[in-house]
Amino acid sequence: MPVEGKQKKRSRKQPEEEPFSWKREIISWIQIIVAAVAIALVLNNFVIANSRVPTGSMEKTIMAKSRVIGSRLSYIRSDPKRGDVVIFHFPDDPTGKMYYVKRVIGLPGETVNIVDGKVYIDGSDTPLDEPYLAEPMEGSYGPYTVPEGCYFMLGDNRNNSQDARFWQNKYVAKDKIIAKVLFSYYPKLGKIR
Description:
Structural class: alpha+beta
CATH topology: Umud Fragment, subunit A
Shape: elongated
Number of domains: 1
Mean pLDDT: 90
Strand content: 25-35%
Distance between the termini: 88 Å
């Protein structure tokens, strides 16, 4: 026979609401801001590179006053390839703070010769195919023999580009290459090839 007794009522306790605290609110915002700044610093110093192209030296690929994003991770396990557009430390700047954006033309150990506006690599009979040029290049330059571990850079707007042809230090060492340019984001968004 069942025993009658008092059954315990199960009650759900309502969670207590904590009173508002300006101190906790300010600490919470500071934590969010510090985390955002830390993430931005890590991204900007180890993952991406942001650069401004102030002149028309890379037109029609990158227009004057454009801003570009590059990947700092592109050359960790590989080397720059001919045709890559890269951000690098300008070799004639003793401070190392000036960045340039140009296209890789000569690879380590190659000889680059420019004859009547056409680029020839290692004495080839066929000039380099350069569909990215703004207009046909004028003049003859070189030959330039690229040292091991270095690269020879030219702008895409060759008739209006202060590039390796005119620098005192004509070659860019691999460790001075910061990033491979992936896209421009200002004034318009576009992939860089």
